[in-house]
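User: Show me a protein chain along with its predicted structure.
Assistant: Here is one chain, sequence first, then structure tokens.
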Amino acid sequence: MFEQTFKNIDDIFHKDAGCSSELDYTEQSSWMLFLKYLDDLEFTKSQEAELMAEDYQYIIDEEYRWSSWAAPKTANGEFDHDNALTGTDLIDFVDGELFPYLKGFKLRAKSPDTIEYKIGEIFSEIKNKIQSGYSLRDALEKVDELRFRSQEEKHELSHLYEVKIKNMGNAGRNGGEYYTPRPLIRAMIDVLQPQIGETIYDGAAGSAGFLCEAYDYLRQGGASNKQLSTSDLKTLQENTFYAKEKKSLAYVIAIMNMILHGIDVGGH
């Protein structure tokens, strides 16, 4: 469903002077994926609030939402090329307005375990490396084709993202430190047999492969394949996974990897 889109995005980065390797491709696609994910998440939450006749408080101000600047649409849902920033205007907006606004969430967030803090942390650590506003416009349109609104879509995106992380391991510049072979991680988890209620900590998380595999293991009921209760699911999301990672590239990739596996970004 999305494999060709991922290839097309990498092709765009490959031609841009600011991106030199698979590590750059993954970093740059990650911040775009994250903002697209946030937009889909906020759209879904606003729809749910509307059904309940409630108001939804958006996290991102309107002018900085993906649907406003990255992928504006006409009334009939077509891409609005007349109102989409491109070229120098787009680069100036992303570098001069968008990233500083998103970085500011770190100071405005109530605590580190909020989605607002994660937004601020990510955009304090990375920067837009794409130099051509036309390349950036092309990439944004491709990322907009990816959707996070069903489990099937998230599952495929998760698989494709894992492939990108694996490719980083062969990209030089210490790319291998971001990827541990999944069979090795699964073997460790099978030996440890973690249970709901225990906390899982990775002191050098890399791309969060260990946390993601541990989540999959527990989500499927662990060694006993038990059916999880609502309180089990809440514990799994909010009080199970903790990690530390000092490198900015690994941090953003780990956050995106966890999101795609189904771990909410409100975790630690």
